[in-house]
Amino acid sequence: MASAEQIKALVKSYISRDDGHFYSIAMQVAAHEAKLGHGKLAEELRDMIDAAKLRLESGDPGKVVQLAKPRGELAGVLKVTYPHSRLADMVLDEKVSAQLQRIIKEQLLFARIREHGLSPRRKILLVGPPGTGKTMTASALAGELGIPLFLVRLDALITKFMGETAAKLRQVFDSITEVRGVYFFDEFDAIGSQRSLPNDVGEIRRVLNSFLQMIEQDHSHSLIIAATNHPEVLDSALYRRFDDVIEYRLPEPEQIADVVRVRSGQFLPKRFALKRVVAQAHGLSYAEICRAVDESIKEAIMHDKGSLEEANLSRMLDERRLISQRMTGDNNKATPGYGGSGKR
Questions:
Q1: CB 84 within 8 A of CB 50
Q2: Is a pLDDT exceeding 90 seen at residue 254?
């Protein structure tokens, strides 16, 4: 049953027409019921919330709340989705999981924290190699909080005309203030690189200065998530503007085994040399391992087999490694680590 604080938060968010916060609290109630073992009730609540979003999005005449849809110039800069992803859909290192759970908890208790003059974590920098779960993290945070995910399209944001990029960035931050959501800046090094780099151009330097000012002045209820594969090129001033930095790395053997088991699902053979597969997958990212498992499952389906074959999965892992090496120019890729990525 919802707590007194949750009920009050629901009423307050409804009165203030804070749609994102209302969905966030409603999802919190569903999650609480799930933890109590009331799985059916939790599922019904989530279905009701999802159905409400679909009705609103389809233009149902009985709708009460307008879903967030970027208009005008912002329509080309912001791409909005309403993810159903959850942290439970990810294989995460304990440290990364703890950091994300803390962010979610602080967001769910946003009002209580603000009452004491403190600010919940909401400006997050994700760093790590490609395919380790940074993009899915943004989706999962939006899904957990029941708020929209806005992908900031840097290709549309950055232009060759002096001052135009900064003006568009200002519009993005206006939206961050007006519409609560998760705003995701992927490949953030495109605008966050060090201002002293030899190939630095004046326009990008001005954009970075604008971003630094805007993110520091932002006190909205939205989450700002930036992700980069190249943290070494980020300007040092950026780190001070973020509330938390989460590091993603390549999976350790335990995480590799979890990804293979979960991704394979019903197609995992009863007799399967998991240790051998784990050893072969060492040095690959979560995304690469998931792709190899998916390809093996497709082979099994096309040949009317109820489970994937170890030999086929082994071959697919080799293919993913070769592709990765060609793309990176690294013929000895085998870097251990930890991090997070999606389950099936």
A1: yes
A2: yes
